[in-house]
Amino acid sequence: KSLSDLTILDGQGNLRIKTKKVEKVDGEAYVNIRKGKVIPGYEISLSVSWEGEAKDGEGKTLLKAEGNLEIPYISDENADEDPEVKVTVKDEGPIGKALKEAMLAKGKPLVLEKVRDFVQAMAKGGPVKDELEAKKSAPKTNTTTSNSNSAAVSKEKVGVEKEPKKEVEKEGKKGFKTITMSEKFNCRAKDMYEILMDENRWKGFTQSNARISKEVGGQFSIFDGSVTGINLELQEGKLIAQRWRFGSWPDGIDSTVRLVFNEPEPGVTIIKLTHLDVPEEDRYGNATVVENTERGWRDLIFNKIRAVFGFGI
């Protein structure tokens, strides 16, 4: 709502620009509570319509234009980074472009400020903040019945972190986890290998910028730079081993990814993922790194590839 009817310019430079309304919000946002600690999680995209008007020195209207402002990816994984903001205008003439540039120059900072407010609110508990404060101040009781009821309310209204999947999260060195997954695709192994090593296809199925070297020792950057790393070992159609790092992780921490490709029969590929040394917390103390990393592999990479390239569900 804070992005609706937001004044960007009110006559400066003979321009008037304001947002109209939030047209679309996709994704999910939630707040989990673990041992009394707030753990926010969100992956959303949104689109906001805007309108502008340009006048001459005498106050006569030269052009009225409309457009959209899009934020394709807001995630708790990137809470410390400003998301990408895209601005479009329906009239691409000189005045329309001037309005678009003004919206970018003056509107983008205001929109990012609202996004930061959302990120900070989620970190403090979001919509369940008041309820959490009430629970903290409520008198404690020693009765078993009362404690059970309290736990039930907490599960229903706030949401409880799911138990770690034993087949997915394994114990490693203290403070770190190993994620393992086995995924089936209806394609040849070389097809999956080529997709995962091709920056243009990454751009396509993630709808974000990517730079990927195909050489051992070469660097890569995916999800608009949120993930960076180096190729450690490459065997076409058989193995991808890389060093991965998320921008929100504490300084000096890297993880290791191994993707092993097996083709038990023509047209069927099994990828076995092992993601080693994933930190349990990011640099801000949010304990959602392992969960978000696993979800990222499943939903943002593997399932997106299936959907975009038709490799099965």
UniProtKB/TrEMBL annotation:
Biased composition (Basic and acidic residues): 154-169
MF term (GO), any: protein-folding chaperone binding
Cross-referenced Gene3D superfamilies: 3.30.530.20, Activator of Hsp90 ATPase Aha1, N-terminal domain
CDD domains found in the cross-reference section: SRPBCC_Aha1 (cd08892)
GO terms, biological process: protein folding
Superkingdom field: Eukaryota
Residues of the Activator of Hsp90 ATPase AHSA1-like N-terminal domain: 1-124
Entry's Gene Ontology cellular component terms: cytosol
A Pfam short name: AHSA1
Region described as Disordered: spans on this chain: 130-169
Comp. bias (Low complexity): 139-153
Stated family: Belongs to the AHA1 family.
Protein name: Activator of Hsp90 ATPase AHSA1-like N-terminal domain-containing protein
